Amino acid sequence: MHAHLRAWFTRELAQRAGADYRAREVDAHHVWSLPAAEALRPWEFPWKELRRDPERFPELQLVKMASRRTVLRTDATGEPLYVKRSLLRTPAERLAALVKPGKEFRETLLALDWRRAGILTPEPVCAAAGWNDQFGVPARYLATRALPATALELKPLLKAEDFEGPLWRALAEHTRDLHAAGCHHADYRCDHLFVEFVNESPRFWHIDLDGSHAGRPVSAGQRKTALARLFKSLENHRLTQARRDAFLAAYSTGT
Asked: How many CB atoms lie within 10 A of CB 87?
């Protein structure tokens, strides 16, 4: 990671979180972490072996796998964490990393911005960048705390209530409040939404914020795109036009 980007990220973290995150070098990796994650060393995880034989590593759970980005769950620090790893395989990706912050660093700052705005998203606990010996390429890492154990997948709940119950209206009102708070999710779909019930009232959690923004008005075009993505993610679950209209009516109330 280039020196000017390291300085920029350290400064941005300090503005959002004070001295909560410690910046340091570990095994030629640049690392920023909360005290709870200072022992985390994601570059030492057996990423390659885990993909080939996940049953050998019961303490690590493979969540999502792609050629460049993999997500796993670990209890390495005594609490459940989700760790994302991105490989910079091509010269173009490595060049880009010298002039702009990678998605892991953008997501870290976005999560802190959203949390300051009162929007629920897992807390980032560690971001790191360095050389991955297993793959022979640079890599970036982001670790976040897990969702609460009481947070449930939203899609099955909506399907169960057939989009006629209070949860559908609550989601519409939450989406309205999210946009009013200046938070735009670039991939606003059901797969990235979870719900937690507190005293029977739903609270919505968001994941995968890369490409999103906070702290500035959400344009009409962004609102339209967000709602279209949400509806598309539910197309195969009896989402009729009447139910869309009910959502839009609740969304528009008070805007």
From this structure: 20
Q: Are 6 and 22 in contact (CB under 8 A)?
A: no
Pinpoint the alpha helices (H) of the chain: 3-17, 47-52, 91-99, 103-116, 154-161, 166-180, 220-232, 241-252
User: What is the rounded distance in angstroms from the CA atom of residue 157 to the CA atom of residue 79?
Assistant: 27
Alpha-carbon distances of 14 from 11, 20, 67, rounded to whole Å:
5, 8, 33
Give 120's contacts (C-beta < 8 A, 6+ positions apart).
196, 203, 204, 205, 206
Crossing angle of helices 154-161 and 166-180, rounded to 10°:
130
**Cα distance between residue 56 and residue 24, in whole Å:** 32
Q: In one letter, which amino acid is 114?
A: W
**What size, in residues, is the chain?**
255
Model pTM score: 0.89
Report yes or no: 153 and 197 within 8 Å, Cβ to Cβ: no
What are the C-alpha distances in Å from 185 to residues 58, 115, 120, 123, 254? Answer: 33, 13, 12, 16, 21
Q: CA-CA distance, 7 to 136, in Å (whole number)?
A: 26
Nearest to 141 by CA among 15, 45, 53: 45
3-state DSSP assignment of residue 45: coil
Write b or e for each residue in 189-212: b if 16 or more Cβ atoms lie within 10 A of its Cβ, otherwise e: bbebbbbbeeeeebebbbbbbeeb
Which tokens go with 41?
Answer: 């060393």
pLDDT tens, residue by residue, 45-88: 998 888 888 889 988 999 888 767 889 999 988 899 999 999 99
Q: What's the whole-number mean pLDDT along residues 123-145?
A: 94
Contact, 32 vs 22, CB < 8 A? yes
**Identity of the residue numbered 222:** Q
